[in-house]
């Protein structure tokens, strides 16, 4: 296996990679390792940066050439990442990632976070269809015990959460939870977090999208629920806002050389966050993003300064 240093030496020889150098600056310190956080319900520690698989990952998964995704997944593991967030509804992502992980021999090493949802928005879920979807995920992922399965987008919690609970009791799923990134489902998510015993939730949280800080993250801490953070870049939103803008020099004080690291370190510095799963289809961005989960994190004062900077950008 190529070490970080060897990899840097190999890639530093190409002009294109040199232009990307800030993305890799953190990896020059061979001691740098991803920060880990404990899952509240078990104490199992997870590296704070994982990988998501909707957005561009899903687009590439649909294409014929999936070599880039192989490189993305192996690079994540090489850098110490384990959490892979997917869903049966992300096009071919779950199936393609399952196959790649088996080819690479990393399927058992990964912490698979997939989802369950056969209900169309707001409608009822058919229990038989839900169980079939669950069985399909087991086939695709190829692990006898799936690490985490969450009810996707709050789809018919009454029918689907008990199916997950039963799978957990039967030892087939280690952790269960619920997800949403839709504003009109936050109230139901909060209510479910108060009522049900959950290991995890998954929700959107980014430096310019801080609704979760009001109730969801404090409640997760109170109730001992782990948090997977989705859309830490707002998919394309934050990238559009920083187009042509330099990362401030003071971001180096907490080890951020790129905007990705700036955005991820803001999210990672919230104590309720267990793991962030940015999606990417590019190995170079996997390295960049891992840099958002190593070394120092911003303190409370720095977090305010970061928000003020982002608020001053266009598109707010
Ligand atoms: N309800 C749910 O359960 C739910 C909802 C939303 C999201 N999620 C999960 O959360 C994951 C992340 O959210 P998301 O995919 O919506 O958006 P995101 O992670 O905020 O953004 C992904 C976008 O950022 C780009 N990107 C990634 N790293 C970059 C870097 N270092 N530099 C520049 N661009 C970079 C990617 O393009 P490149 O490919 O070019 O890098 C992609 O276009 C999803 O993939 C999914 O697994 C779950």
TrEMBL record:
Keyword Zinc-finger: no
Superkingdom of origin organism: Bacteria
Occurrences of domain NADP-dependent oxidoreductase (ranges): 49-300
Pfam families xref list: Aldo_ket_red
Annotated signal sequence range: 1-27
Record keywords: Signal
Record InterPro entries: AKR2_Oxidoreductase (IPR053135), NAD(P)_OxRdtase_dom_sf (IPR036812), NADP_OxRdtase_dom (IPR023210), TAT_signal (IPR006311)
The name this protein goes by in its record: Aldo/keto reductase
Organism: Sheuella amnicola
């Amino acid at each position: 296996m190529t070490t970080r240093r060897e990899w840097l030496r190999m890639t530093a020889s190409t002009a294109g990679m040199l232009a990307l150098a800030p993305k890799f600056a953190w990896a020059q310190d061979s001691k740098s390792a991803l920060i880990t956080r404990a899952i509240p319900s078990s104490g199992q520690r997870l590296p704070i940066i994982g990988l998501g698989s909707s957005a561009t990952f899903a687009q590439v998964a649909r294409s014929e050439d999936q070599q880039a995704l192989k490189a993305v997944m192996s690079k994540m593991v090489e850098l110490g990442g384990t959490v892979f967030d997917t869903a049966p509804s992300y096009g071919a992502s779950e199936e393609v990632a399952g196959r790649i992980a088996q080819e690479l021999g990393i399927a058992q090493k990964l912490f698979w976070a997939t989802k369950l949802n056969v209900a169309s928005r707001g409608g009822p879920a058919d229990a038989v269809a839900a169980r079939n979807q669950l069985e399909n995920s087991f086939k695709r992922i190829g692990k006898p015990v799936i690490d985490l399965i969450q009810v996707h987008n709050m789809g018919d919690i009454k029918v689907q959460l008990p199916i997950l609970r039963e799978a957990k009791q039967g030892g087939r799923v280690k952790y269960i939870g619920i997800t949403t990134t839709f504003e009109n489902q936050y109230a139901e998510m909060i209510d479910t977090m108060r009522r049900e015993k959950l290991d995890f939730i998954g929700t959107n949280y980014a430096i310019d999208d801080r609704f979760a800080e009001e109730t969801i993250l404090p409640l997760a801490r109170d109730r001992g629920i782990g948090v997977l953070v989705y859309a830490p870049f707002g998919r394309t939103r934050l990238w559009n806002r920083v187009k042509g803008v330099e990362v401030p020099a003071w971001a180096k004080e907490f080890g951020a050389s790129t905007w990705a690291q700036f955005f991820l370190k803001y999210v990672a510095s919230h104590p309720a966050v267990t793991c962030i799963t940015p999606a990417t289809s590019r190995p170079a961005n996997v390295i960049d993003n891992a840099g958002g989960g190593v070394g120092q994190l911003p303190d409370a004062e720095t977090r305010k300064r970061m928000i003020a900077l982002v608020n001053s950008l266009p598109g707010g």
